[in-house]
């Protein structure tokens, strides 16, 4: 096993990797930008390296800087987390060429699955059913029209370099194809530098169901059942649950087998997710995510497997610690994403300084987050601040537990997606389990109550007043009154997240 690894990420996923690595006796090297110096992943790592520059391209997204950090720190392997460079085949190759271990799938598997036309072609060879459509890029409008005739309307126009919902257009009749085709083509070119498009049958009210897989380097592969990810808006997921309420035992087994077939065909290694669209009792391969995903904890909760531990074992050349027959689903798990966003501002990301934090607890509750009091939530990084995850013996109890946990939780200083999630959990349709990817579009998120507005306004006035008094009184008054009072309040109301929490033996 590795002695030391570098984590090329930040926030809750960097913490997630550090936690498992520490349990396995592996030293962690964190990297961070100058404005992340106080971040929890920096404090929890054994060592932290500040990357130069002030833009993402200069720090978290800079392959050279990351490889140099690995070299100077003596790390043997790099874990990319999710996002950032995790699905960048060129970076994976550069890591290997630098003599390091890439804690992820082979670069070739990343490349095939990253190109939606290539992956459809590969799945055709593997006899995995994709959504009906093309396996070649469409050359021009005339070809698009004749292909659409063959596939049948409605049609989805997608970018080969897309994925995750970027650059998808729906066409319901031939007369609308031309303008959609031109727009999609321009958009693909400007967004990905690759204008290749292809056509698929558009499935009208699908559910998004995905299967977690794990493969080692010895030809062993397992699936860890399904996750239901249909509660999303504009391709941003809000809530996920496992197992999917739409999938029965026989379908679960069939989907698992197809997911293994898909992954095995590209010589997959490590943790990955095969996404399916599920419509009218049929499921179709959509794409494969070649990374650990945000929603992986719900799979951990229903299977008891630490997915990051298996990632580390597999990358070090060891065997998976179990086989398919050792795995089963126990109970039900739900995850809610804590995004800094404003329901009153059309769910735009919002910024601010985190003031008060209260973490929920009790049985079956897990909070994965990089949040700490005083943390600045800026526009630079992803608005996802963390995830609240629950497990319970069955779905109704998991729903009640999540409602309770959200009510227990307090995040001050920014608005979050938690009230919206609460509304979903209380919705009859959600409770019935019969919902699809359009569920959130049809839901008007209620603004928080009038009373909460009044309290928030009063708090804002109070804060303003304190700041004004502080400015008038000068620095000595600040030390005497404001800071001490803040600490006392924190003791019973918030998470202790200041430096005094300790830095877990690392350098702060
Ligand atoms: C589709 C589709 C319906 N039919 N393709 C959006 C995300 C990207 N991964 C693919 N997406 C979709 N592709 C066909 N042929 C509907 C979606 C889709 C969707 C898929 C998964 C989760 C949420 C979604 C929300 C809207 C549309």
Portion of residues in beta strands equals 15-25%
Each distinct ligand: ligand MV4
* Total E-strand runs: 22
Instruction: Tell me the strand order in the biggest sheet.
Output: 13-12-9-10-11-14-21-19
Estimate the mean pLDDT confidence: 90
Which structural category fits the helices and strands? alpha+beta
- What kind of assembly state do the chains in view correspond to? single chain
CATH C-level label of the largest domain: Alpha Beta
Shape: globular
Termini separation comes to 26 Å
**Architecture of the largest domain, according to CATH?**
2-Layer Sandwich
- Which fold name is given in CATH as the topology of the largest domain? D-amino Acid Aminotransferase, Chain A, domain 1
How many domain units? Answer: 4
Q: Using the CA coordinates, give the radius of gyration.
A: 24 Å
Tell me the CATH superfamily of the largest domain: ATP-grasp fold, B domain
Q: Can you count the helices?
A: 16
